Amino acid sequence: MEPIQFTLSARAGIADEEGRTRDAGARVEALDACAMTMRVGERATFECGAALAYGKEGNFSFPAVGKDRAVVLDLEILGARGSAAAPEMRQRDMTYEQRVERVRAHRSNGNAAFAGGRAREAVREYSMALTYLTEDFMMQLFDKYEVEAHEEFVAAHGNLAAAYLRLGAFEDAVTHVGYVLKVDENNAKAYYRRGKARAGLGQEDAAREDFLKAKKITEAAGLVDANVVKALREIDAAIRDRERATSAAFKGIFNTKTDGGDASSNADANVARQPPDGGGSFISRAVASLFGKSRREGP
Known about the structure:
Elements: H1 29-35, E1 43-48, E2 71-76, H2 96-115, H3 119-130, H4 135-138, H5 143-167, H6 170-183, H7 188-200, H8 204-220, H9 226-254, H10 263-273, H11 282-290
Antiparallel strand pairs: 1-2
Helix pairs in contact: 2-3, 2-5, 3-5, 5-6, 5-7, 6-7, 7-8, 7-9, 8-9, 10-11
C-alpha cells in the first residue's frame, strides 16, 4: 500500500549514472523495462526472467528470492514527472522544504479531483504525495519537522481512505485508516471513515464501535459531528433489523404450532410434542421431525 518513486533509466539499468542503487528498494532492471511500456494510470502484471530480476544469486534480504528465479511484477503507474530534456530532481537530493512542497501540491491536486468527482485520479495524487514521505526520510526528522511531516502523512492517508470509500473499495479504506491511527489514535475522522468502510463490508458491530469512538472524541472537544450522529443512528437501525430478522428465523424453526398446512406437516408437529417413550429423547426426535429427516411410523 506504500507507493515508491524511482528514476526511469533510458538504458534500463539497475544503477544510475553515478553508480548508486535505486530509491526505496526498487533494485531490479525489470522495473525500468516494464515501466517503459506503460502509461500513467495503467496497471499491468509482468513475468520477468531472473536476468532482469535478482539474477543467478537471488536475493536473501527483503524480498527473499531464490537463486535464478523469475519474478512476477505487479506495477501501477500513479504519475510521472520530468523528461530526458528536463529531468526531475531526485528525492535524495531534495531539501526537507522541497519534499513537503511536493506533498502539498499533490494533495491539493487530489482534493480538486475528489471535489470534482474524480476519485480514481484523487487516489493517484494522494499516493504520489506519499512517495515523498518514505519511512527512511521520516525517521530522520525531529522537533517541528517531525510534527509537520506526520501531519502531512496523516492527511494523505486520511484522504486516500475517503477516496477509496467513494470508490466502494472498503478494504483499502480500512487499510489507510490504519496508517492514520498509528500516528494519531484520537483522530475522529479516521474512526468515522473506518466505520463507514466496515459498514460497507457488513461488519455492523465493528462499525458501531468506530462511530462511538468518533462521537466520544468529538464530544470531548466540545463538538457535535452531524455525520457521526447520523451514521450511528443508521448503524443502530441496521443492527436492530438484523437482530429482528435473526429472531424471526429462529422463531420459524422452533415454533411448531401450525395454522393449517398439509396433513404430513401437522403429523410431524404432533410427533415433536409427544413425550419420550424410551425410543430416544424428546429433543432429538423433535429436531429430526422438524427438519424432515426421520419420522416414526406407529407407536
